[in-house]
Protein 1
Amino acid sequence: FPVAPEKEDEGKNINLVETYLQNFYNLQKDHRPHLRQGGKNHLAEKLKEMQEFFGLQVTGKPDRDTLEMMNKPRCGVPDVEQYV
Amino acid sequence: FTPGNPKWKKNNLTYRIVNYTTKMRQTDVDEAIQKALKVWSSVTPLTFQKTEDKIADIMISFAYRDHNDNSPFDGPNGLLAHAFQPGEGLGGDVHLDEEETWTKDGRGYNLFIVVAHELGHSLGLSHSNDPGALMYPNYAYTDPKEFLLPQDDIDGIQAIYGQSDDAVQPTGPTTPQVCDPNLTFDAITTLRGEMIFFKGRYMLRKHPERSETELNFISLFWPNLPSGIQAAYENIERDEVLLFKEDKYWVIRGYDIVRGYPKPIYRLGFPKTVKRVNAAYNDETTGKTYFFVADRYWRYDENKKSMDHGYPRKIIHDFGKIGRVDAAFQKDGYVYFFHKTTQFQFDPRAKRIVSHMKSISWFNC
């Protein structure tokens, strides 16, 4: 059965999620930390978009299935927006 | 489709292999790329001419990390390759991460599969959310010898460039939909408490504790297995699953294929007249395995490792009107026979059919 992620894993997971959504779902890289809190909802929206695309349960949360999907080797072209 | 619907304004395109990976022989790289181009040329009016020196429409190269296109690679795994939509300059070009283990088989990453996918982008396609499509974003190995361009990709590319000039229009496989009432199965088995339903190159995996059903390529777990498995059963006592296709069978112990397989089914005692097995199940209480072939069935004694005398017998005599058996498995003392979209629940103690359901009844539709 799934084991609850350790604290360290959580940090790693957040990085994975943000990088994945920046690479493939056009999540803007906002470099102003205080916006990061506000950005979290935006991140949840992007996460839902990714979960919908892959037919996962749309939770807006980086659950186990979502992280598993993000760890799969894949093409570098984004799943949404124009790749220029 | 890629936003803005970019497409090449001409059908006769050129390509050039700018450099080669060190992981494969150059002739194997050439062959993989030619086969990948043919995937698209065989379903559209497009043609691809190789050029050695001048600038081609599609420039194919292997690159490391940051390679000056604002999209750096990330070393082994992760990002495998990318390509650019039709257009001048970078447009149409395919970049492959040189730090991947490129191969021409199931090890590492199959170059043919990845290049075929990236060429879809070079021609104007975006990603598909059909898990069976070539344009699905995640890597999934398929034996190149068995590869057929799925219908989802054919529909996409023909919407951009039109149909091929062939008299007979090519069609491709579709991805099974779990709750499709017309879904039938090639074979079904239990596997360490889960249920595995085989359909073409796919397996639907149902864990009793999870509501969703997982759809995977058979090759994801067993790259050396063919698609189109025809029969399967689990011998729980031996922790083995036996898989059958045509006159051969494989043994999986735990989750790994046992070395030395496939072997001829005749080793199990079938006569040479039997060319394939339609379905099988193992009765864990008696240790007997039942094999269904056309309208007859054999019974195999797992302890004696031989077929019981007095077989084959007519299916209808001992199991009733269940027709040709596509797939069968035993669970919780009942045997479930699948015939097209119908499933019969058979009680071996009462020796009669006690209920029948739709074939997709296990999937919480």
Note: Residues 33-37 of chain A have pLDDT under 50 and may be disordered.
Protein 2
Amino acid sequence: KSRMHAIQVDSVQRWMEDLRHMTEVE
Amino acid sequence: RAAQGRTHGNLGNTYYLLGNFRRAVASHEQRLLIAKEFGDRAAQRRAYCNLGNAFIFLGEFEVAAEHYKKALQLARQLKDRAVEAQACYSLGNTYTLLHDYERAIDYHLKHLIIAQDLNDRIGEGRACWSLGNAHTALGNHDQAMHFAEKHLEISKETGDRG
């Protein structure tokens, strides 16, 4: 979890926000 | 057996959306196993991508990168440029999380080239944003400025005020 808190790059944060709701559907 | 494969994939996606990433991984690994039995490369590609995403939220970035690389390899075999671009973008972001900015730049450039080929301006804008950040992290301020300016230009064009 400490690694997750170290994220400071805004473009990566945005990617992860999108990724959290993204799945490859069957 | 084919239906079992799809069901494992659906379960994996549901666990993922619920935030249960360990169970998501277990389900997607089962899905991958069955996709391999059938030689279904599109399903293998999806499973590797879903596994990579789950490992990101488990904080296991190296493992995520290995799965995204498999997804990239399959996307190339399947000649699917859009999913190839997506895998490159995921790898660029994963290497940024690993503070390996040279590798991040390498993958973001690959993503940029495909986005340009596909005339995907939103993808191109994201690639420029990411490249600007990676170059900033490396202290390459001229390169960072170049990509920041391109990002601004594309954002204006796409109406992205943020």
Note: Confidence is low (pLDDT under 50) at residues 1-6 of chain A.
